[in-house]
């Protein structure tokens, strides 16, 4: 399992239209088998499937995966709790993920300032 301190160090999402499951795994630091499992558990996550049943994720899918990861790994929700949170208020999940990362960034900045003093 990923440690919460590693979740803020995600790479930026490149300006591409489609991403393979391996690329999404690297962008979100989640293994492909976990992504396939999340597809079964979260109805909002539906990548495009093409030749040979290959998955192609779009930008909004990558953002959704990062939100799911935040709910599960950072905020401590269970799969069922995260699913319920996503269906109740999908906009609030994005806002809470952004706020949590902004707060952590501010805390790091303040700690650096204190260390300099």
Describe the structure.
The protein is mainly alpha-helical. The chain has a single domain, classed as Multidrug-efflux Transporter Regulator, Chain: A, Domain 2, CATH 1.10.1660. Helices cover 61% and strands 5% of the residues. It has five helices and two strands. The chain has helices at 21-28, 32-41, 59-74, 79-88, 90-116, and strands spanning 48-50, 54-56. It has a two-stranded antiparallel ribbon with strand order 1-2. α4 packs across α5. The chain is globular. It starts with 20 loop residues before the first helix and ends with a helix. The model is unreliable at 1-7 (pLDDT under 50).
Major β-sheet strand ordering: 1-2
How many separate helices?
A: 5
Mean pLDDT: 83
Question: Oligomerization state of this entry?
Answer: single chain
Distance between the termini: 36 Å
H and E order: HHEEHHH
State the major sheet. Answer: 2 strands, antiparallel
**CATH class identity:** Mainly Alpha
């Amino acid at each position: 399992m990923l440690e919460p301190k590693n979740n803020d160090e995600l790479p930026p999402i490149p300006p591409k239209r489609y991403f393979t499951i391996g690329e999404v795994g690297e962008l979100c630091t989640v293994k492909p088998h976990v992504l396939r499992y999340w597809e079964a558990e979260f109805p909002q996550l539906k990548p495009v499937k093409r030749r040979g049943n290959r998955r192609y994720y779009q930008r909004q899918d990558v953002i959704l995966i990062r939100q799911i990861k935040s709910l599960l790994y950072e905020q401590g929700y269970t799969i069922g709790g995260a699913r319920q949170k996503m269906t109740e208020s999908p906009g609030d999940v994005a806002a809470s993920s952004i706020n949590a990362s902004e707060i952590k960034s501010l805390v790091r900045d303040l700690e650096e300032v204190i260390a300099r003093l």
